[in-house]
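User: Can you predict the 3D structure for this chain?
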Amino acid sequence: MKRSLLALAASLLLATSLAGCAPASEPIELSADTILIDVRTPGEYDAGHLDGAILLDLSGGQFAAALPTLDADAEYAVYCKSGNRSGQAVALMENAGFDNVIDLGSIGNATASTQIEIVQ
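Assistant: Here is the predicted structure, written as structure tokens:
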């Protein structure tokens, strides 16, 4: 019985902490000045990206190369395929002093929360 309660408590704790990892697809209003960044690969971007997004491939090094040239005072919204790379990119931006960065998570979450269409 004690083991069952511990397992249940651990499961609930894990479920609660995992729920906070992925950004919710609640409506997000981006300003006209928000810079939308897609951190996926060029192939992923070409297959479909949010309208107006710029490609800064995290895995290929393009994001890291561009980071010092980005305006730290601007507003950014970042997305990727699953939410993993966008989370990494947002962490890098925050560590570099960027204060106004939104992690949109996956492209699916990004289009659902911003209502920006996917284009090719």
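The helical segments are 2-19, 42-47, 62-66, 84-95, 107-114. Residues 45 and 97 are 27 Å apart (CA to CA).
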